[in-house]
UniProtKB/TrEMBL annotation:
Signal peptide: none annotated. One of its GO terms (molecular function) is hydrolase activity. CDD domains: ALP_like (cd00016). This is Phosphodiesterase. It holds the Pfam family Phosphodiest. InterPro entries: Alkaline_phosphatase_core_sf (IPR017850), Phosphodiest/P_Trfase (IPR002591). It comes from Niabella soli DSM 19437.
């Protein structure tokens, strides 16, 4: 009898660990380039902090190394690190190491490609300020694709309009700030924190668009970054460069919860796949941040 009880308890524990999230029909991923987690506590970012208060968050999530752009955007969207997907440099446009896997679109599987393969009619939207995002995601894997040409306000307004009118299943908005200020003036400077106020306003516009579209009760909003920075650069191993914010908000997400489990940027794609009930490729190494869901 004791063995049976222990077995039942084990099954229940396993079920809890892998419990499915509520029905989520839309995910909006907001990626802020060069946004170090170190900056959040002192930043004047009421919109982001509201998402944190009403959702789950971590200020100790980590990039992959090197803590640079293309390698980390690839990892975030491809569910694996550079030794698997092959993009290893700041501005990688093609894999420097042959990718360990390939989708039907000829590139390493991304969250966009698996959505397209498994749900061909689902609308997806990719809006990006930095042009280095373009070669990472196959054009055939996206429904709507807009190059913002280094204009974050244009990207924000475009993303908001698309969310209101098209209600994509998956929307990824890449914003180039505060990375630009980090490079020109420096991290941990008054100017960097001032720019974060602008970043926060853009986040607020996108959150408002989700509400305006009438899909807030079916939408998870994720806010994160590719890397942080130190001085006027990034790419190194310091925590200022490696630690990134990771914020999850929406129906079923624990409120005011500080995430304790280790989060690596490639867990973002895995979390989105889990939320949208997509089967993850075997080559992915990310794990869903299931800790964020539940009471």
């Amino acid at each position: 009898m004791q063995k049976i009880s222990l077995l039942i308890m084990g099954i229940l524990s396993l079920t809890f660990l892998h419990a499915q999230p509520p029905v989520i029909k839309h995910v909006v991923l907001i990626g802020c380039d060069g946004f170090g987690a170190y900056a959040v506590p002192d930043a004047d970012m009421p919109n982001l902090k509201k998402l944190m208060r009403e959702g789950s968050s971590s200020l100790s999530a980590r990039s992959v190394l090197p803590s640079s752009s293309a390698v980390n955007w690839a990892s975030m969207l491809m569910g694996a690190g550079p030794t698997v997907h092959g993009y290893t440099e700041w501005n990688s446009a093609v894999p420097e190491i042959p990718s360990a896997d390939s989708s039907r679109y000829g590139l390493f599987p991304s969250i966009f490609s698996i959505l397209k393969e498994q749900r061909p009619t689902a609308v997806s939207a990719l809006i990006y300020s930095w042009q280095g995002i373009d070669p990472l995601i196959a054009k055939a894997a996206t429904t709507i694709r807009v190059a913002g040409k280094d204009n974050d306000n244009f990207c924000t307004d475009t993303a908001a309009a698309i969310i209101r009118s098209k209600k994509p299943v998956l929307t990824f908005v890449h914003l180039d700030q505060p990375d630009g200020v980090g490079h020109t003036i420096g991290h941990r400077t008054p100017e960097y924190y001032k720019e974060l106020k602008n970043v926060d306003a853009r986040i607020g516009k996108i959150v408002a668009a989700v509400k305006d579209a009438g899909i807030a009760d079916q939408t998870i909003i994720l806010v994160t970054a590719d890397h942080g920075g130190k001085g006027k650069g990034h790419g190194g191993k310091s925590l200022d460069e490696v630690q990134i914010p990771w914020v999850m908000y929406g129906p079923g997400v624990k409120k005011g919860h500080q995430l304790h489990n280790t989060i690596i940027t490639y867990d973002t794609a895995a979390t989105i796949a889990w939320l949208l009930k997509l089967k993850m490729p075997q080559s992915w190494r990310g794990q869903p941040v299931a800790e964020a869901m539940g009471k």
